[in-house]
Amino acid sequence: MMMRISTLILFISLLNRSAYAAPASQKNTLANPEPVTYANIDRLNNICSNIFLTYPDSAHKIADTALILSEKLNYSFGKGRSFLNLGIIYWSQSYYPVSLFYLKSAITFLPKDRPLYLSDAYRALGRTYADLKDYKQALINLDTASYFAGNNAARLAEVYSERTYIYNLTGDYDKALGFVKYSLKLNRIAKAEDHIAVLYGRMASIYLAEKNYRAAIAYNDTAAFMSIKIHNKRLLAYTYTDYALACNGLGQYAKAVDYAKKGITLSDSLGLMDAETKAFNALVTTYELKHDYLTALGYQKRFNIIKDSLTNIAKLKTVKLVQNYYDLNAKMNQLTIMSVNAKLNEAKIRSQHIIIRMLLFSMVILLAILTGTYYFYKQKILLGNKLQVQHKELLEQKKLIEEQSANLQKVNDLKDKLFAVIGHDLRSPIANLSNITEMFDEGYLTPEEVHDLMKNINPIIKGVGLTLSNLIEWAGSQIKGHNLTLSNVDIFLMGVEMEQTFIHALQVKNIEFVNKAYPGQGAVADENHLKVILRNLISNAIKFTSDKGTIKLSTTIENNGLIVSVTDSGKGMSAEELDKLFYLNTHFSNSGTSGEKGTGIGLLLCKELVELNGGILKVKSKLGAGSTFYFNLPLAKSYV
Question: Running DSSP on this structure, what letter comes out for residue 94?
Fold first, then answer.
């Protein structure tokens, strides 16, 4: 019940907060955006103004995005710059009427405290009017641009540059050259390399109009070089066309044809209809001057076809242009509608605020009353849970102690058993040795008889030594664990060593030892561990194999591992004995075929060492038919 009331209060609180947060956030977004948001819009407009001559389509998309964001944030300066960029982009694509619309829109949004951007807008208007042949309006707008440029050398240089364009078109070449030189001076002060390149192209056009072709080519060289350097493809297209016209004037018709074709290709890729028309006319003029009227006529027809095609494309682009305008306008209108709706919603939410506030106040009082009750109830539950956890931990600790006690008892019982067996096994060999030495000292035995007795007792002593070695190894592993030193071990060579170790025991029982391990077949294991394993397995095999039996050591490769097996033809084991063989609490030891005794600790040690080296010790046996102990080891890399 308490949780439901708390949830309801929280829900109403969030509802109240969201009701005010939505219009508040919209208001902040529309009127007081974070400075970083303004910076992002300015960054988009900067990118647009830098790339519009090279990538006009991409620049158009960026300007649209900047305009929508500016409208959303009611960022007047951002709107003005976005409209200015759109106007310049449409001018670069020769959509002059559309350019005028966006440029005039830019002037209405650009603030008076940003005079340099107003200078850019009026200068762009002046250039657009010049391209529309309205030179009077062009000069009026350029005068206004000069006013807003103030003492800024870069902006003044751009304004004077556009004046040279107008005077060149109107045939006032002296005035045009004068303004070019003055503009160059200002641009060098401003270090505006892109505008300097345009001015060199402008000078080339002026000298071309005056038929001073060599001077035109000289300035064209500089303009072409700089246009490539600053990536101004529009300027380069016009430069190719001016080269063609100058070469025609100098009678260099081959060069004229080459430059005209370059101009046509580049203008076509940029969609510059004016430059492409000028280049085709230069090409037709070239062939007319060469009196190759047939080729001239062919290029004229080709141009007419392209012109018709471009006209159709221009119509399609115009349709797309209108569609783009309406899409952009629709998005901006949608933002306006959203702003109005936000204000209406804010008014509605304010009217509900008092009611929600009163409801919240009442519920807070109720919550305060219930909180105390709930707190004490929760404390009671927590205390009960804590007691349950402590009780569970005590039971687990008791169970762990009982398990450890049982394991300790098993190990202690095994220890008692081992000491009893080892004591019995050591007593007989030591007593025999003592009797032999006493009889020898008293003269009852000759050296030859002692020698024969020592041969018979030697296997027993070695068996006792193996038992002690196993006991020491096993006890060490129980106390401090094993240290593992891996190396590549040749099983065949180790088998040879084992045969020499047990040669006397094998000869006594006339057992044949067959080493079927493949020579050079290596395994990755601890060599000392492997010697202990094989020594115990072969010793057991000798112990439980009758006279004239066979013991075989063999290796096979399986699944990138080495299988090592020791097989004997001894008495074998029953299924019941196999189940008890490898477990600490059920292990056992049988007497050998000649009455040999053992502790059974050897196989437990073998199991531990095999597992430590990454393998598993297994056994296959049948009562009366012998046994095979086998285990796997990682194969050396050279054999994988």
Answer: T
